[in-house]
Design a protein that fits this description.
CATH class of the largest domain: Alpha Beta
Helix content: 40-55%
Largest sheet: 9 strands, mixed
CATH superfamily of the largest domain: Spore Coat Polysaccharide Biosynthesis Protein SpsA, Chain A
Number of helices: 12
Order of helices and strands: EHEHEHEEHEEHHEEEHHEHHHH
Number of domains: 2
CATH architecture of the largest domain: Alpha-Beta Complex
Number of strands: 11
Distance between the termini: 40 Å
Length: 299
């Protein structure tokens, strides 16, 4: 498809990047690698010689997305995680859908887990209250309520087209016109909330973020609690704080930080094993200073 290019950002993407690239075979594809040491680069060279491979330092996911999109010229770009792949002719369906919706800047497909079950992906922009509903387990009281669970889509069934605040960025279509008008992804977000920030800015500029169940993508994701979970979870918390400082102000972010701290300490009491250690690590970090000072500290 001449009107569609694809971008995959990799960092030690084995074993799933092969499946990801196979799912977009025939598209102009750019792989941006951030210093893989597991054989990802060799695999791309050997198995996908038509793919353009860009190697650069690991400046974060937004840094990679921006570089990959800049390396393409098509009016639409499909962006995939290295552990995600589109099902059947889903890429073409995304473009057809976007072309029929005025001001569709970002289109998110329906995400599936590898076992075929739904992977909920629709989200709401962070606010102190929404942070509280998540970190203090309040959303469990009424998972379909917008009051108590807007942060996680208020129980949206992911079975119909819907305009949303934002969606998980494991797989998404972005319109180049929107990207150029809204601007690139903010590279201060290293691994989480870069899509949240971009969709928020896009909405303010009059562009729409849409969920489209007519395309499905499988996302392996990081559901298991591995050794690196503590640093990844801390990066997720940092992303929430950075979004709030940027779009709601330092005072609002500080209120959210205090809510987060209470919630993380509660979780450290409720959970056991590695999860407890992850939440303790995050609580110690959040307790260390104000929201703005935490964002200035090194990772």
């Amino acid at each position: 498809m001449a009107d569609l290019a694809a971008v995959v950002v990799t960092y030690n993407g084995l074993p799933h990047v092969e499946r990801s690239l196979e799912s977009i075979a025939g598209l102009e594809t750019v792989v941006v690698d951030h210093g893989s040491t597991d054989g990802t680069v060799a695999l791309v060279h050997e198995r996908f010689p038509d793919v353009r491979l860009v190697e650069q330092r690991n400046g974060g996911l937004a840094f990679g997305w921006n570089r990959g999109i800049a390396e393409t010229t098509a009016p639409y770009v499909l962006v995939l995680n290295s552990d995600a792949w589109v099902v059947a002719d889903g890429a073409a369906n995304l473009v057809r859908f976007a072309e029929g919706v005025p001001r569709a800047g970002w289109v998110a497909p329906r995400l599936l887990n590898p076992d075929g079950s739904l992977q909920p992906s629709v989200r709401g922009f962070p606010t102190p209250w929404r942070i509280a509903t998540e970190y203090l387990f309040l959303r469990k009281l009424a998972p379909r309520s917008r009051v108590l669970n807007a942060f996680y889509g208020a129980g949206f069934q992911h079975d119909e087209v819907r305009e949303v605040e934002f969606a998980k960025a494991a797989a998404f279509l972005i319109r180049r016109e929107a990207f150029e008008e809204v601007g690139p992804f903010d590279e201060r977000f290293f691994l989480f909330s870069e899509e949240t920030d971009w969709s928020y800015r896009a909405r303010k500029a009059g562009w729409r973020t849409l969920f489209f169940p007519g395309t499905e993508a499988v996302h392996v994701g990081g559901a298991s609690w591995r050794r690196e979970s503590a640093s990844l979870f801390r990066e997720q918390v940092r992303g929430h704080l950075r979004f709030l400082v940027k779009h709601r102000g330092a005072a609002t972010a500080e209120r959210a930080r205090r809510v987060m701290l209470a919630g993380l300490r509660l979780r450290a009491l409720v959970f056991r094993g590695e999860r407890r250690e992850v939440y303790r690590d995050a609580a110690d970090w959040v307790a260390g200073s104000t929201a703005t000072t935490l964002l200035e500290s090194a990772r």
